[in-house]
Amino acid sequence: MKLSEGVEAAIHCAAMLAGVEGQGTLPGAAMAEAFGLSPSYLLKHLNALTAAGILESVPGPAGGYRLARATERITLLDIVLAIEGRDPAFRCGEIRQCGPARLDASAYAKPCGINVAMQKAERAYRAALAEARLSDIVAKHMRDADPRSVAANRAFVERHQRPQKSTKQTER
Amino acid sequence: MKLSEGVEAAIHCAAMLAGVEGQGTLPGAAMAEAFGLSPSYLLKHLNALTAAGILESVPGPAGGYRLARATERITLLDIVLAIEGRDPAFRCGEIRQCGPARLDASAYAKPCGINVAMQKAERAYRAALAEARLSDIVAKHMRDADPRSVAANRAFVERHQRPQKSTKQTER
DNA sequence: GTAGTGTTACTCGGATAAATATTGTCCGAGTGACATCGG
DNA sequence: CCGATGTCACTCGGACAATATTTATCCGAGTAACACTAC
Question: For residue A145, which of A156, A132, A133, A154 has the smallest C-alpha distance?
Answer without folding.
Answer: A154
